[in-house]
Write a structure and sequence with these properties.
Two copies of one chain form a homodimer.
Chain A (H helix, E strand, L loop, with lengths): L3 H24 L6 H8 L3 H4 L6 H23 L6 H18 L1 H8 L12 H21 L16 H6 L9 H22 L10 H16 L3
The structure holds a DNA duplex (30 and 30 nucleotides).
Amino acid sequence: MPTARERVRAELTAEITAAARRQLAEVGAAALSLRAVAREVGMASSAVYRYFPSRDDLLTRLIIDGYDALGEAAEAADDPAAPPEQRWSAVCGAVRDWALAHPHEYALLYGSPVPGYSAPQDTVPAASRVGIVLGRILGDAARAGRLSGGGVRVPGLLGDAAVEVLGQDAPGIDDAVRVRALLAWSSLFGTVSFELFGHLVGSVEDADAYFARAVAELGALIGLD
Amino acid sequence: MPTARERVRAELTAEITAAARRQLAEVGAAALSLRAVAREVGMASSAVYRYFPSRDDLLTRLIIDGYDALGEAAEAADDPAAPPEQRWSAVCGAVRDWALAHPHEYALLYGSPVPGYSAPQDTVPAASRVGIVLGRILGDAARAGRLSGGGVRVPGLLGDAAVEVLGQDAPGIDDAVRVRALLAWSSLFGTVSFELFGHLVGSVEDADAYFARAVAELGALIGLD
DNA sequence: GCTCGGCGAGAGCGGTGCTCTCGTTCCGGT
DNA sequence: ACCGGAACGAGAGCACCGCTCTCGCCGAGC
């Protein structure tokens, strides 16, 4: 049973993060001002420090929330009953849609690191959610024998995290598959980032069609056909 | 014949950009402080405004210089006499090496856009240099008949810039090749960014070996074998 | 009922980008 | 040769930033 004090504290915390998210969407992460957040919530800047020890901690909160929202979008888009290549493109599309809808949050997650700020370990579980979805798709495809390629051993190349996300050794899953999954994962984000950060301006007319083709090519790269 | 005044102005401008680049390497773009630059050069902050109308203009200068430096590295790494897949991996390696050596400048070029700042048109030629190198490699490979795949028409998908960089229609070059080239370029960027921005920590043990494999996979994706 | 801890407000510190003014210095035309 | 004007550097000042400290308040637990 939370006391009244705890309740109002939780409410105020949520209100602060909501205002911070609004401010993030307006001015970006680097210019996120704790004072402006305080103004929007209607209290003195010093009072915010009762809830977040520093601006960086507020940023960490936003980062974790962002990873969770993106991960949730990816999970919601994945229908385990669908064929693998369809699951792949559905998840890719969901990631892109979320990025286009929340460009500043996406930039916070996958853009330049904020100088002087290093993400704490707390962010790792949330950050892994999209990777886990992709790993599940690949694992299912491999177990169903619908994953071509593979067969290469590259000891010492990958770390434990990759093996954990992409499943233990199983029929059809080896280091070559994991490497290609990682590559597809970073390529997907390269493609989304290029579009979002304006590097495709002038080169691509129809961004939707380009993305669809890119996802198909990357699916083929992984071994989904 | 430049007057003495013009000479000292050019010198001071160069000194300011040099100090700014040093500061950029230390604290990153978002924390780049014009006052600190002025301190390092040894003049009042207001005096710097005689040379750069605003902090953003100083940033633009750094961006153009960065694109030029990266483009130069890519051009230097490309040996037109070598086989295409070797040229591809050499240029990819040069891009990654430059990024690892100048992480903050790379983040400035390919990371989150600075909010409220939009790159002026002046940056486009410098930004295109790496793309042009990649386009030349693909064009040469296509003319030599060493590019597999292609054969797909996707009218209205790509813009003029892509056609310009990747050559007019030629035997072996069509929209499908250009799309894959763009995809390879953004995937390369995604791979480098993931490594640089820390998204591969825990998943990849041997970054050099991973990158080499990624480049090889991407080369195959383009159609180089 | 009283005390003590959480709380909000306000002032203050050193920093930022940017503007304005003021005295100087140098360049070009007469 | 000189003088007017343009370029220049310095300094003060404005509004903002993150963060700290102190102070008065108020509610929850002993």
